[in-house]
Amino acid sequence: MLKDYEVAVTKAQKLPGRMFFLEFEAPGLAKKCEPGEFVMLKVEPGTDPFLRRAFSVFYTEPKRGKLAILGKSYGFGTTRLREKKAGDRLKMAGPLGNRFGQAKKKETALLVAGGVGLAPLYFYQQVLAAERRKETYLFLGTRTKAEALALKRLMPQTVNLQIATDDGSYGYEGRVTDLLEKWLEKNRSGQVLRLLSCGPDPMMAKTVELAGKFDLPIEVSLETAMACGWGICIGCAVKSVPDEKTASEFPKTPDGFIFQRACVDGPVFNGHRVVWESDGPA
Amino acid sequence: MARRSPPLKVKPDLKINFAGLEFANPVLVASGTFNYGEEMAKFYPLSKLGGIVTKSITKKPRPGHPFPRTYETKGGMLNAIGLANPGIEKFLSKKMPFLRTLGTRLVVNIAGSTVEEFVELAQRLSDVEGIDALEVNISCPNVKEGGLEFSATPQPAFRVLSAVRKATRLPLVAKLSPNTADIGAVARAAEEAGMEGVSLINTLVGMAVDLKTRRPILSNVTGGLSGPAVKPVALAMVYKVARQVKIPIMAIGGICNAADALEFMLGGATLVQIGTANFTDPLAAPRAVEGIEDFLKEKNIPSVGQLVGSLRTPAEEIDSSPKRPKLDELRVQT
Ligand SMILES: Cc1cc2nc3c(=O)[nH]c(=O)nc-3n(C[C@H](O)[C@H](O)[C@H](O)COP(=O)(O)OP(=O)(O)OC[C@H]3O[C@@H](n4cnc5c(N)ncnc54)[C@H](O)[C@@H]3O)c2cc1C
Ligand SMILES: Cc1cc2nc3c(=O)[nH]c(=O)nc-3n(C[C@H](O)[C@H](O)[C@H](O)COP(=O)(O)O)c2cc1C
Ligand code: FES
Questions:
Q1: Residues B18/B268, Cβ–Cβ less than 8 Å
Q2: Complex confidence, ipTM
Q3: Which homologous superfamily does the CATH classification assign to the domain defined by A3-96?
Q4: Are the Cβ atoms of A52 and B279 closer than 8 angstroms?
Q5: Is residue B269 part of a domain?
Q6: Contact check, Cβ <8 Å, A259/B39
Q7: Each residue's pLDDT tens digit, B30-54
Q8: CA dist., res. B143 & res. B58, Å (int)
Q9: Pick the catalytic residue: B30, B125, B140, B307?
Q10: What residue ranges do the domains of chain A occupy?
């Protein structure tokens, strides 16, 4: 069952680079949410903004009834969300969408995050680490040192964290995908590896390209703009290469692809099948 | 001084008759804002609704338009989904089995690009068990063919609707477009064509531009505007149509809650459809049902049907009888 919960902000923190962190008292969702799933937040009651905003779950603490998200403000809704204070109440529907695939035996997961794309991957790492003791490496790209440190501080539990900053002020200088490529060149052979990625589209597209080059499976968590978040508007079309297993209610496009709904067929997709469009999701 | 009557002790009657069909309550959900019910059944039992109107079904499956298909605007949104749907055959085999189990009225929305396609769809659905009525979508603004040209003027509307009328015994509701000079004239054409009812409004043609890229935001360039922003337009149109036809009206357009629904009923709607509000509040529709019941209790009104068309209007307006076209006038031009 899905539910629309009323949740209260328990911790609110503004982070550098227009990012923000919010923790909620949300016992129902904290119990239910799994890595990869997302929630739809009604930023304000009424019409300003009208539609909800989608956020991946960053972590849950089921025993304490807590659920956290990591955001970045772009437009009106996320700018308002960044101003939320402890005690503010809002509506949160979930858990929505699919999950990351289960780790296989002897498999090492490489988590490739761009900025707040970190959220679902950190959640994956925490659950996996806690439950299955699988090895994971977390590659995080940010623009600046301040952003990197702010995010690092929010995940005291993380392991095998490697950071790349665009300006080289912290960690590896350059793109996180370059850092990943170097790592793969050194460590690819003899390992069973799997890639998971979330971040800006160009970053994910590049990660998929590397997955191809090193012959690795990859899951990507997409942030396709959504109107509803629960499957009823058919707005969140993700173009992908069809295969026998891919379920789509809709027929092929004239150019031979299929549209899937990011909110119910995703947001986690097989990266090798996603068609990245230059003027697709922002 | 008028004495206030005490609040109702008995449960008010939410049941309401529309074109010979009894609905458990006046709240339905609008086509394209509820898919085929499966997703929303995860939020609440759909038997709480007066009925469901399905996403438009076309003869052949349609992939829909490329992304981006939606865009938030002030108090509403634009959409150009492009009638993405699995097509009638998959609808019958994959969606109907579930829809039959819901215990609520089922209105299937059909869309064609030609008169023949509308007729074929109506014939195919005619004897399907579990369908209570068809909503004939002659008003989709987002497709090249079969969209607005059927509903912008009375003659084409009359032509397609009278052909559909002959193709099925199911009760028919024509879904009208606000993108017309005179929605009253199109509604009268629908009545003359033998429709049991009309539903209005579909979305208003709208557009959004990205200043940074100098491009339209939607892949289809234009889309349909919906949500609270369109409510006043819809209300005026329902009010206008209610005074020009005898057949009952389903009101659509920005309805988010019981108050909105009741306003449309006063304006002349028998039933209402909740659309875009399903995207922002998954429980909007069942809450509207509860809210209507509360209103009736509070105002001591025993039956919801009493509200229909009960708007108090200036006397001269009530007297004005609209000009009704003669059947011949319509036929001459078809
Ligand atoms: C499954 C999923 C998970 C997400 N997880 C996170 C997360 O963990 N942290 C985070 O910071 N952001 C996340 N996002 C992106 C976030 O939802 C958007 O940044 C946000 O909706 C933009 O709202 P706005 O008010 O800033 O933009 P506006 O431009 O004001 O929004 C207008 C409309 O477009 C939609 N929209 C615009 N940009 C995006 C976008 N990039 N993605 C989705 N919808 C968009 C909005 O929801 C809204 O309906 C996620 C998106 C999805 C689909
Ligand atoms: C995303 C979306 C998809 C829609 N798809 C259809 C459709 O397939 N057929 C149809 O007749 N109307 C469709 N509509 C129009 C709605 O049924 C309704 O007439 C309109 O949105 C106005 O009501 P609202 O403001 O309550 O949403 C769609 C509307 C939206 C927002
Ligand atoms: S966001 Fe509405 S169907 Fe996916």
A1: no
A2: 0.94
A3: Translation factors (2.40.30.10)
A4: yes
A5: yes
A6: no
A7: 999 999 999 999 999 999 999 999 9
A8: 12
A9: B140
A10: 3-96
